[in-house]
Design goal:
It is a single chain. The protein has 7 helices and 10 strands. The strands form 2 sheets. Strands 1, 4, 5, 6, 7, 8, 9 and 10 form an 8-stranded antiparallel beta sheet that branches. A two-stranded antiparallel ribbon has the order 2-3.
Length: about 250
């Protein structure tokens, strides 16, 4: 931690107009949330699939043999396609006749074939101090990290975390769970569940600086999880404490 703090101070002091009047370190909580979700594979519907659905939509057919004869496709191949269509609930058999489901009609109209995949799970990292999910990986603990206090504006009470499904889907999208490979797209169709696994303490370095030429006090905060200056935490400190800093630190130059 000492080496990192020295490096950050050196960087800040490159601005000759800025003087560090205070420095400290603290931690913010980072919650690891396990999200279980159902993905869907989406791909542009091929010509044969479209022809089969249209045929089932317009003709009263009772067997794969009839469909294969109409479309001039080998029966075994057509039976495989029929099984896929039944499994994905695009067609059903009513009164012994192949019929399109509502889902089948919608996908035929869109020209997109969707297939549900097995449920998957992904860990997401949520920061109450940012009111958002953050991207990155938990790093090994720094020397002396265990002695740091909690960020003064972080609640010490257990945080009750609840999200709308749309928020979790957005977080999964941002983390790369949705993919596009040519015409093939994998998207999140449903959130099954979410649960908190554990909470990590992320060290942050806080510096209060005074710009002499502008007579301005402001905060810089280095977030070790993001490995960059954290504008969200800086803005919070500036809004909450700038008046107090003027009373506390301006006398240092006198």
């Amino acid at each position: 931690m000492i080496d990192l703090e020295k490096r950050l101070k050196k960087e800040l002091q490159q601005n000759v107009q800025a003087k560090i009047v205070s420095s400290t370190a603290w931690t913010i909580p980072l919650h690891t949330i396990e999200v279980e979700y159902k993905p869907v594979k989406r791909i542009k519907m091929d010509v044969l699939m479209k022809m089969m659905l249209i045929t089932c939509q317009k003709a009263e057919l009772t067997s794969g043999k009839q469909i294969s004869e109409l479309l001039l496709v080998e029966q075994l191949f057509m039976e495989d396609l029929i099984n896929i269509m039944k499994r994905t609930r695009l067609i059903e058999i009513k009164n012994q006749i192949f019929t399109l489901t509502e889902k089948g009609c919608n996908q035929l109209e869109e020209g997109i074939f969707e297939e549900e995949l097995d449920a998957r799970s992904q860990n997401l990292l949520y920061s109450p101090s940012h009111s958002s999910f953050l991207q990155g990986e938990i790093k090994p603990a720094l020397d002396g990290e265990e002695t740091l206090n909690l960020y003064r504006y972080a609640s010490e009470e257990k945080v009750r975390l609840k999200w709308e499904d749309a928020v979790l889907v957005d977080a999964l999208q941002t983390s790369g769970m949705e993919t596009v490979d040519g015409d093939l797209q994998t998207v999140v169709s449903e959130i099954v569940s979410n649960s908190e696994l554990y909470v990590d303490d992320v060290p942050c370095f806080e510096f209060i600086l005074h710009n002499k030429s502008e007579d301005l006090l402001y905060a810089r905060v280095w977030n070790t999880f993001l490995d960059q200056w954290d504008e969200t935490l800086e803005n919070e400190l500036n809004e909450r404490e700038r008046v107090v800093w003027r009373e506390k630190y301006l006398g240092l130059d006198k």
